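I am writing to request your help with a piece of structural work I have in hand. I am sending you one protein, given as its amino acid sequence and as whole-number tokens for its backbone shapes. Kindly check, if you would, that the fold set down in the tokens agrees with what the sequence suggests. You will find the record immediately after this paragraph:
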Amino acid sequence: MKTIDAFILFTEPEQARKTVEELKQSESVNKIWLLTPENITASIKGCKNIAIDTLQSSSTVKKIAQKSSADYTLIYQKQTVLKPGYFALERMIRIAEDTRAGMVYADYYAISNGEKSNHPVIDYQEGSLRDDFNFGSLLLYNAKALKKAARRMKNEAYRFAGLYDLRLKVSQKNPLLHINEYLYTEIEEDTRASGQKIFDYVDPKNRQLQMEMEQACTQHLKDVGAYLKPTFKTIEFNKGTFACEASVIIPVRNRIKTIKDAISSVLMQKTNFPFNLIVVDNHSSDGTTEAINDFSEDARLIHIIPERDDLGIGGCWNMGVHNPACGKFAVQIDSDDVYSGEDTLQKIVDAFYAQNCGMVVGTYQMTNFDMEMIPPGIIDHREWTPDNGRNNALRINGLGAPRAFYTPLLREIKLPNTSYGEDYALGLNISRHYQIGRIYDILYLCRRWEENSDASLDIEKMNAHNLYKDRIRTWELQARKRL
């Protein structure tokens, strides 16, 4: 019988005792190690202690690798009580043995506010490079694969990116396998809505963590042959003829509460060049169409209602960009949001010429519906560097806002006809060959309210979004390997 050495966090005696009791019900468990803070001594019968700084550090990973003597190494990442399912650990071992996986993980039940619900996770793939990929809290590593990966962590001294680095290194040699069965129950402590969680990675207080994650991911890209050196194609902006210098494009469907604010913030722009506004009205039925028509006296506004009924946001963008009226640069604003001042468009166009880039990304401020700042506040993506930004872009879930593009590139590449991830796919593709410019002034107010498309997603929709973005990264990773 294959055996497991289990490593669990010790935060307080009752939590640890209950988890240990649950684990001891499995005959597969060989030893149980308590991962304790360096200033705490834990005492639970039949368990041994390992003093650690943080669970996520390289130091902790190396200690686990050193102490693990069984066939498999189980790491439980949460501070709450774990309840494995009936013969769940044996099931995980069986799948790991049959598939030669480096690590297996499973769907689980989550208890939130006293209620138990299904919490499925998604399959890991080559492009699943997000450091916040949800494996659940229970990870079963093949001990040999774990030890080999730990030995390759010679120069790493991460405080936050150790576990991330471990799974990247394991994935280079062995598959990470999702068991789509509900094999354990855990307590869910983060009960925030999806619209709040998605911005954790750009919270300024997490900057040191993000820098470590970038370092680990960059090394992984080098290891697998997908790293891109900082050499970029030059763009000659004087080629071609365009109706104007810049076009702002707004795809919209049923945004009667916000569309007028968005349009007004564009038409108030002060520039030394001609620009227009292309609104692609995707068959609105709530009065949005009539609200757009209220601006019809302004010749700069081009109101398009597609004949097609199969367009997502990306498809609407394609329609706007391929319109003969589209300018040399296509600039984004969502129908929920507004520009922060009258000089936003001028700053964006100036940046294209100053930085010779195929795409420009600005800085935005999170606000409520009334445009009052809310946490995490200003999102500037200062972790971006001209040398490594396009590599790190494969790890993070977005590139920032507002976004603007050199129109001939959009016409050539074209956006996927989706309503999620379309701009991210485009940004990755552009960054494969061209520099992405950055503006660190606040150009944009991103309004968060209950009708945002990602405000409160259920787990199935979140999984679908994450699976798609991972797929985008997989395709991009494969393309970069061929370069």
About this structure: The longest strand covers residues 176-187. The radius of gyration is 25 Å. Residues 459-482 form the longest helix (24 residues). The mean pLDDT is 94.
